[in-house]
Amino acid sequence: MSHLLDLPVEIITRILTQLSLQELIRCQSTCRRLKRIYDQSSKLQYIVEIEVAGMLDNPRCRISVADKLEALRHRERAWCSLRPTFTKTVPIPRQSCGLYDVTASAYFLGVASESTPPAVYELQSLALPSISTATASHTEIRSDKEIVDFATAIEEHDLIAVVRKAGTIDAFSGPHGLEIVLLRHSTRQPHELADQSIIHVPSPHMVAGINIEISGENLILLPALGLGGMGPLQVYNWKTGALRAWTNAISNQGVLFLREDIFLCPNVFNMTLDIFCIPDRSEATGSIELHRPTFRLSLPILSGSHTISGIECRCEPNPTSGNSFPQYAPQSRPFVNDPERAIAIFSFDIREHTELQSRPFIMLVHRKTLLSAVSTLHALEAVHPVQATPWFDWGKDSVRWLDAAETGSRFITCTSGERYVNISLNARRIPSPISIIDLNQYRIRRALAGFDVYPRHDSRLVTPTRTIGDPEHDSIDEEHVGKPEFTENVVSELSFAEFATEEKFTYDAVMIDEERVIGIRSRHEHPAANISRVDVHYFG
């Protein structure tokens, strides 16, 4: 009788590549031959280590698997020790204004006009360096109308969607109409996949701000109106220009995609995370009103004297259509962050009724945790009435809360993949280290098992049952946050690792993208107002 181990090594290796991560790890423990095959196979090691790292392999990258494995290991060592491959200062070519974003491909800033107050008619895009000898290439996107905001889907579609004021009054657009201009980022020309290069958005009310997100073919536009009101959230198919769905069941300007067809909005009135499903119906039937969320996840209850005065949320990178690999990711990059493993950040400003000053809190949770909560429904159909899942049933074990009163970020762009970056809010005056909080549970379990994952002497691991290490610059209370803001201490038991740089910096703020930590230096106290230069710390 033939046995598995009688087969040629090549066939055994091919069989092992079809196993899950857990199955492949268990196989190594069954016999010496399978362990030896694994130890001699770059392909098998790469399959394991790229999943542990929370990355996706780039099938268009032509370097060998052995070279990809070495690049991945170099990247992991650099991030886990917070020792960058190089650091480079990049000047900002034009005076910046409040608009900004950072993606794996580019860093964007609005260009301040000379008017008072300044408006934005241009965006500057900087491709930050990936090698020490490179310079940051700079391009500009110009508009003849005032730019309100923008969103990108560069790696999936080579797309930038610029929202601008229509500048005309007619029966369709109303007195405050908007336009969504769809451009190729690489050429700054109208995107040829869009049937309409400009989507006209009617608005009868003054728009105070915009939130816009793109995933797959879906583009979400959520305007904030004057006097604290919210306009209807609208879902467009950016390729056809058709309005697919809309809802008025929105209480604030936060929105993020969980999947191409599922999005989440925090509800500040109910203290819930409201999850909506975009109907899969023909656009020929017209747009569909989403009367209520499909699902609700409860947040900890605020005490009676407190309210939320502001909230932002983000999860980078965004999911792609059908979880396909982003086709415009550079071929030179061997791997990219897995959107499902990415950390969603929710930034809350909580204020007591009698106080003018609010207190900031941050909540971190994996996108896959939120998707798992949705999958507990047997079908993605609205329940009447919608029943909210209690906080302790879904959040206690899967969420990490941070009291961000002393540390945090002035920007929401402080997470990428499973890492969160912060620096002291007083670093401009008192030099401070950059701190990374890592929520990759594979790395943390390996560290707890004795592997040298985090070589920094000041790193610490925090689990529900123990804390290992006690660095000088620990930035969060591992046990609980929230009294007196919440009715009870908010317990969050998601394990994490925290470590800080040896060097101290005088940055106004820090950001993070897939490969870099970006230190912000501005000419004023508010870093978004006039950024003079950025320091790029490249890790890979």
Brief digest:
This is F-box domain-containing protein. This protein is mainly beta and 540 residues long.
List keywords for this structure.
540 residues; mainly beta; Lipocalin; 7-stranded antiparallel beta sheet; 5-stranded mixed beta sheet; 9 helices; 37 strands; 36% strand; globular; F-box_dom; F-box domain-containing protein; F-box-like_dom_sf
CATH topology call of the domain at 143-405: Lipocalin
Separation of the first and last Cα atoms: 49 Å
Number of strands: 37
Helix content: 10-25%
Low-pLDDT segments? 470-474
Q: CATH class of the domain at 143-405, anyone? A: Mainly Beta
Fraction of residues in β-strands:
35-45%
Question: Total helix count?
Answer: 9
Summed over residues and divided by their number, the pLDDT gives a mean of 87
Protein name: F-box domain-containing protein
Domain F-box: 1-47
Organism: Coprinopsis marcescibilis
InterPro entries: F-box-like_dom_sf, F-box_dom
Q: Would you give an account of this structure?
A:
- Helix content is 14%, strand content 36%.
- The chain has 540 residues and is mainly beta.
- Among the domains are: 65 residues; 263 residues, Lipocalin (Beta Barrel).
- The strands form nine sheets. Strands 26, 27, 28, 29, 30, 31 and 34 form a seven-stranded antiparallel β-sheet that branches.
- A hairpin with a 6-residue loop joins strand 22 and strand 23.
- Helix 4 packs parallel to helix 5.
- About 1% of the residues have low confidence.
- It comes from Coprinopsis marcescibilis (Agaric fungus).
- InterPro entries: F-box-like_dom_sf (IPR036047), F-box_dom (IPR001810).
- This is F-box domain-containing protein.
